[in-house]
């Protein structure tokens, strides 16, 4: 996790994915203040969680994890020690292999990344320029809510928006306070009947993604889960009116 200050007791404000590039700003007592190169988000992580990325720029093929989660294996056997990775994780492929899956005898294609881990090819693909990111967000329905979370283990409302848009090749800031000003274009004075699938609906400190017919998918801190609910209910649970919503159209 990314913390607000160099302490395990400090607030967890975000999370970095495996292989995500950062710039180290300073270090302090085993902690490093880093800035994520993708979105400029800053915070503190343990210094031991960082590696010198000597492999970056190795001319491998860049791919992203399209499954909710996958595993990277130290050996190309699908049996040994592994590293869990989330939806949206980017790897640079430098090798391939085919192995027999344990217990089935079927061939499985594996991809070797620049750090030497082997990933199931079926979970990865190129960055896609998709016109509709709503199905990507809907994949997370049932995922636990986690303040500061940014993976399929748990995530918050703004991370759901960021991960889904990033997977479509679109930039998106990390926090709702930035998203409400920067993503796509504003739709002034929007009413429920004006909403299109994919419109982002904001109230102070919260964002939801309109799916259809006045319903939205969101990471709900009250229900502690990603779920689809009527926008009227989402507003009421946060003691706001539907008329208070701000809407942005990202695509």
Automatic annotation (TrEMBL):
Pfam families reported for this sequence: NLPC_P60, SH3_16
GO MF: cysteine-type peptidase activity
Key words of the record: Hydrolase, Protease, Thiol protease
Biological process annotations from GO: proteolysis
Presence of keyword Chloroplast: no
Source domain of life: Bacteria
NlpC/P60 domain ranges (all copies): 127-248
Stated family: Belongs to the peptidase C40 family.
Protein name as it appears in the record: Peptidase P60
Protein source organism: Phenylobacterium kunshanense
């Amino acid at each position: 996790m990314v913390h607000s200050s160099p302490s395990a007791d400090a607030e967890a404000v975000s999370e970095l994915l495996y292989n995500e590039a950062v710039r180290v700003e300073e270090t302090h007592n085993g902690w490093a203040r880093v800035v994520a190169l993708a979105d400029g988000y800053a915070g503190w992580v343990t210094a031991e969680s960082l590696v010198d990325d000597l492999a970056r720029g190795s001319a491998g093929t860049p791919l992203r994890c399209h499954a909710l989660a996958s595993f990277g294996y130290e050996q190309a056997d699908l049996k040994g020690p592994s590293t869990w990775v989330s939806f949206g994780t980017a790897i640079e492929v430098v090798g391939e292999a085919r192995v027999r899956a344990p217990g089935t005898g079927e061939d499985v294609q594996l991809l070797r990344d620049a750090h030497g881990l082997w990933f199931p090819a079926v979970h990865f693909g190129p960055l896609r320029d998709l016109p509709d990111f709503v199905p990507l967000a809907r994949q997370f329905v049932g995922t636990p809510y986690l303040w500061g979370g940014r993976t399929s283990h748990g995530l918050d409302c703004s991370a759901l928006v960021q991960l889904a848009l990033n997977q479509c090749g679109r930039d998106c800031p990390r926090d709702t306070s930035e998203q409400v000003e920067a993503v796509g274009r504003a739709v002034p004075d929007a009413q429920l009947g004006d909403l299109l699938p994919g419109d982002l609906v904001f109230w102070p400190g919260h964002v939801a993604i309109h799916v259809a017919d006045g319903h939205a998918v969101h990471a709900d801190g009250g229900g502690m889960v990603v779920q689809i609910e009527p926008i009227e209910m989402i507003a009421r649970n946060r003691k706001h009116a539907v008329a208070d919503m701000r809407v942005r159209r990202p695509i």
